[in-house]
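Hi R.,

Here are the chain sequences for the assembly we discussed:
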Amino acid sequence: MKINSAVKLGTVALFSAVFLAACGSSSSSSEADKQTLNWMESSALPSMDASTATDVVSGETMNNTGEGLLRFGKNSKTLPGVAKSYSKSKDGKTYTFNLRKSKWSNGKPVTAKDFVYAWQRTVNPKTASQYAYMYAQVKNANAIIAKKKPVSSLGIKAEGNYKVVVTLTQATSYFPALVASPMFFPQSQSVVEKYGKKYATTAQDNVYNGPFKLTYWTGTSDNWTMSKNASYWNAKNVKLKKINVKTIKDPQTALSQYQSGKLDATYLSGQQPKNYKHSKQYVERKSASTFYIEMNEKKDTMMKNKKARQALSLAIDRKQFVNKVLQDGSTAADGLVSTGLATKNGKDFNDDAAVPSATTQDLTKAKKLWKEALKETGRSNYSLTLLADDTPAGKNSAEFVQSQWAKLGNIKVTNSNLPFKTRLSRSQNGQFDAVISAWGADFPDPISFLSLFTSGNSYNNGKWSSSAYDKYVKAASGKDANNADARWNDMVNAQKTILNDQGIIPVYQQGKAQLVKSDVKGLIYFPTGANWDFSKAYISK
Amino acid sequence: MAKYLAKRIFYLILTLFIVITVTFFLMKLLPGTPLTNQAKLSKSQIALIYEQYGLNKPVWQQYLLYLAGAVKGDFGTSFQFSDQPVSYLISSRIGPSLQIGLQAMVVGVVIGIIVGAFGAMKQNTWVDSTTTVVSILGISIPSFVLAVLLQYYLGLKAGWFPIAEWGGFIYTVLPTLALGAQPLAESARFVRTEMVDVLSSDYIELAKAKGLSKTGVIFHHALRNSLIPLITIVGPLAVNIMTGSMVVENIFSIPGIGEQFVKSVLTNDYPTIMGLTIVYSFMLCVVLLFTDILYGIVDPRIRITGKAN
Amino acid sequence: MADTVKLPEDSFKPISADDRAALDSEKIAAPSLTFAQDAWRRLKKNKGAWASLIVLAIVFLMAFGSIFVSPHDPNATNPSYANLPSKIPGININGFNGTLVQAGQRIDAYKQAGASNVHYIMGTDYLGRDLFSRVLYGTRVSLIIALVATLFDLTIGVAYGMFSGWKGGRIDTFMQRVIEIILSIPNLVVIVLLILILKPGMLSIIIAIALTSWTNMARLVRAQTLELKEQEFILAARTLGERPMKIAFKHLLPNLSSVIIINTMFTIPNAIFFEATLSYIGIGISSPQASLGTLLNDGQKNFQFLPYQMWWPAVVLSIIMLAFNLLGDGLRDAFDPRTKE
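And here is the predicted structure of the full complex:
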């Protein structure tokens, strides 16, 4: 096993030289070659149909090959996209988007009609889109999905070729973030109808209006290529010529490919992050998903007792869990809302809304609270079943939480790891004592998380209820929807309320560890949905 | 012969019918839906999507529809690749799997024959012991361990071969070696045993007595007669390769059906699992049929008749 | 009978004990050996097989002995001692002295973790669990899976084969067709489907392997039964009105034993192999339980940084496979009277 590092370096260099020489002979211009990004995904690209795609890889690809009225920039900020500007009515219910003159990759203009067509197609019950519910804020969308109103009644109208007017059911401050997501992208009616069932099943059966166009993808291939789209309105600012994406499922293989220079970036998993923690190329990306424990307050008095819930939260050493057990770039949860999701004046939501005393381990206090809770509810000990998914991460979490809770004394925790579907129906039917649940934000706004725990919400499995919390959430999506500062404060207060009352126990925020070559610059990452924007990326060599 | 063929093809169809039926009803027993984000959908939306996949019909209707589709090569639509028919998914991915599988089989068996024959010729010498050890080691090391070792040492460290992915012939070298080790070992063992038997038989003694050269004896008589029974193990070897390919394709990122099968299993993509099961069974049936026919042709002692047995 | 030959009275006389001793040609010089004794004697002459038997005995002893005496608890985690390489006191060869290469430099991982006074023979895994204990534990699980699956497979295969061969005729033809159909479905596919339905776990793996691997045994047993049932001793038993069940157990089974034992020796490693492959795919034994397959799979992921985590289980697995295969070969030769000595 002893390998002289100089020799090792030599071999790698030699290998790279041979490899580069081999490459050089086949390609002509080295300048063009330089602006090629070699990217990897751990699963294949399953669909490019904005109306039906459900997975992250599709979202990411569409985000780079298409463009909505607006597009996401750094920190999930919305920037002008196909719409060069927009205005909002005073009541916040009507948005008017002024479109710029831009083109599809087939040379046809992108018009307001393409948006109307795409939106109607997605909510059309015939399309059976799994993400149609994202349109809930748009007028009549829910009725159309339920087949109660015709598709044409959707609250989007084209006024001429370059103006889109959207009517909402209620003021929605995060609506700009919604229209920047791929499921709100335009679709060309003539192209969809031309290809029919084959639409968007290969690179050729589709048109693109984004910074890149898909130039190679057979629909089932493990590799696909995005090339710079010359028809894109902002093409002069797109520096990358080509993005080669490869599906590599085995993490060890992916890392080897990265080391041998065949990839410019790779995700790390298992023990790999640990070995690269100190590397300059190591980056941790936070996803907008939080794992939290819900406690069934309807089942018995113990879980209704605030001290008991607090004790359970304070017993968990989240740092040890993410750093020693998961070690995959996940971080200890600061609150219900994931960190990095939303910012105001450069400050993260959790900078304002975290409640450290509810999410930091304090075993002595936890023990004390637990004792008091037992006394108050008249018990000598308490046994509970902890429900969780039967995935490796689910089992890891359950085992860890179990061992942490055991330290409280006078507690017996039984783990029950079930398949996702079963776990879900059990938690929805209230057949649990405590359950480890997870939620991923659909759009970059704290309300995506906060709306879950209002009284009577179907995702509020533990039936925790607080009138103050309900009031804050209602204000944020109603009366304060047009007042950014007031709305921010409402949401901060909502999270503080649920954490102070320990309505849930946040455990960790999912993360991804990644290695990125140091000459790759300008990558834009956002924690929801589409994840990546390559339009500003370039290779600095 | 024609009668025999007809009979064998009838059994092939019967086998496939049973495979389709059994897998179909097994799949119905499994939990899971085409919905990737079931947690966020309302009941009416779920019903809508079920309709799309024809999952709202009674099971027997679904079965008949599936059967009718399967006859035409239509295995439904993949859950994972939501717009792709399973038949297209399979047909666009079967090429690399077939190529690597065949290469592994050919390379494995040819080298296996050479190694086995050497072992038999130099019976009870160090050559023999070495070949025996090599062949048993080949059986003893799981193909995924071998794949990892090859990838690391020959791919990353030495840089002789690409680490992964699919391109020209050079990309197939490491996966072929990883997959071919088992057929190599099995056939080497098999050929050695057979050849030791043949070498001690009377007609070889006679040939030697007649003054035939040693190479003449080996090539004209011994090797030829030892190879015939080798055909019988081609079927089992094909099964080994199919099993191995699921793992090896994953490690070398080969866009084949083995990798797809694993992915489908992990994502509950039932239409794809079913389609691939049928395709795997079909391929194995064809291999078995060919080896049986071939065996009948090369070995005059075995006559294929219409009668059973 | 007119002229009878008259012989003198003393023409014949009884043989005396001394004479008997002198008659060498009649004497059986070697002790009389039963078939089993003979096979055992041949086996002992085969160095490879004999060594394998000893190796397997040691492996079994250690794997099952570790239920009672294990160097560490295989599931006890100790995150601060995570990923320590092998350290065997007194051996100062890289790879066994607790050092490993980190960022291009060889460092003493034990010193770094503040664990200079402890040593783990095979190192520790990512949770600081003792890999040696895990390997013993994993070997045990793998062996249990293989043995139980083989036992099932034996029962089904032998019963099916004997019944098919014994009955003959249409029943036999039908049963052979069934086997042919089963054989033309790739067994890993079947195993995967069964496990999906039964939920991953030890029991479902055992059932799935057993249900798919009995065909080979059934075929061999049937062929042997067909041969045996034509032989005189079976015919005699039948003529005497012995019940078929009794014939099967008393007469057939002992004569089938060599075929069964040999085939078992090849079925066990196959089952171990299947379990390892399933673990790699991700539907094998689930943690914190371990098998050689899951250990290999875990190790494979870190092969670049912590090669020992794959090497140890790989070596143990290969030794077990090697031993079973060599022993199987040895037994085949030992049971075959034609084997040259």
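Chain C has one domain: 43-78+132-335. DSSP finds twelve helices and two strands in chain C.

Let me know if anything looks off.

Best,
T.
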